[in-house]
Amino acid sequence: MIYDVIIIGGGVTGCCIARTLSKYDLNICLLEKETDIASGTSKANSGVIHAGYASPRDYIKRQLAIRGNKLYTQAAEELNFPFKRIGSFVVALEDNQIKQLEEERKKGIEDGIPGLEVILNKEKIKKMEPRLTDEVVGVLHAPTGGLASPYELTFALAENASMNGVKFFRNRRVVKITHQEYVFTVRTLAGEFKSRNIINAAGLYAAQISRMLGLDYFSITPRKGEYILFDRNAIQLNKILFPMPTKISKGILVCPTLHGNTFIGPNAQNIPDLEDISTTTSGLKEILEGAMKLVPSLPVRSSIRNFAGLRAVPEAYDFIIDNTDVYGFINVAGILSPGLTATFAIAEKVVEFLELLGEKLKVKEDYNPSRPKPERFKDFTKEELDKKIQEDPTWGRIICRCETIPEKEIIDAIHAPVGATTVDGVKFRCRPGMGRCQGGFCRPRVIEILSRELKKSYEEITKRGEDTNILIGKTKDFLLNQKREGSRGK
Ligand SMILES: Cc1cc2nc3c(=O)[nH]c(=O)nc-3n(C[C@H](O)[C@H](O)[C@H](O)COP(=O)(O)OP(=O)(O)OC[C@H]3O[C@@H](n4cnc5c(N)ncnc54)[C@H](O)[C@@H]3O)c2cc1C
Questions:
Q1: How confident is the prediction for the chain on average, in pLDDT?
Q2: Ligand 1: nearest atom to the Cα of 204
Q3: 200 lines ligand 1 (CB under 6 A)
Q4: Considering the entire predicted model, what is its pTM?
């Protein structure tokens, strides 16, 4: 079969484009190299939906972030992913920084960002965010700044796109693309796909994909950002806190999450390796020192995890979204921060580009923009829960005690459209293993449930796909075999 559109890459960009295009009468598929979607940059970032003032005015990413921020309200209603506008502060610690805050405010207001204000009254600032350092002299408050859970958003987008007919193929690393008579042939490590159009949303690998068609007009450098995550309720913040920005980054922030944790980070370090998400002693020290300038009372001993994400940084430091010289091949590359914020606006741009290519985009009669809200134990009243447990006892079996996740939520995550097939897939969809013990207690039970629901052996269940097996056999079988071999040798 020849698809109308193939999307390469199942991060937030590819999945948002898939969901946006699923509205139209098109045959679409998405190819992802990993065992799950949301396995790249979209898994590990700050999750901040920026107000949009932070990029220079002549950058496309500024316009798309401002528009993208606005599109979140409707998208969150339709797709039911965690999202909240809690507002952000850029924190000035010296008097001479106030001028810069005033300039950002003025430009931001002119560009249509609502509610931006510079607050100089310390008492008012501390009332809005009591944890902020006493050294504060002023803040730029952006009430439209918010938080989204980036991977839960990506899953929601994929589920809705799948409900509307987009085919998702995971474990399909694209290795070669050829183009003949207006049809692309896309070779993956597991089969060939044909399409009239390709959208390259391959994140860190977008330059490599582009080069497969001889288009080498940009390159991508990975820039690592490390984080420290604190235990739920160890500290409560009201606002997203940014320091004054540097030339290459928005700086190290102190930020609440939508699940009640707090994190600090990221730093910014160019690295050569597209897969290196290790954390480093020097990096963690850097973010701790940076974050403590904003919140000196950080609960350092309550850290439960360190992690890192990689930004896909192009030379020009701006998004590359264009119809290329190869007819039907659209690059959506260099989607560094604020790519999550801009995602719905980026997808709108892709629609424009497809129209420019002459695609007649007709809205499907049965298009459904809504993705049902996943049912959560913590959202039910006691009476509702009693009823649920009577109807289905898996609601009453708590698998993850740190996060209070019952078996039913895990089963639902596995059987959702584009559902979980790995331990991490379950963890990122419904949180078992996200709490204080980091899966120490619940992981064996999650493996059991995955094995039963997917009809696979325990040994076939992996952490996150190929080469991440957790179990290699039964301990007793192993010992018995060793004993037999030993006695044979005697
Ligand atoms: C440290 C950090 C902090 C950030 N903070 C924010 C923030 O607070 N707010 C914000 O708006 N943005 C933020 N961003 C930016 C945001 O995370 C990115 O813009 C966004 O996640 C990019 O998504 P993507 O889909 O383009 O890339 P990815 O999520 O990397 O997706 C690309 C996908 O393509 C797949 N792929 C690659 N090669 C192939 C191939 N050959 N075949 C098939 N599939 C392939 C990959 O496996 C991957 O799943 C941050 C980024 C980082 C790193």
A1: 95
A2: 30
A3: no
A4: 0.96
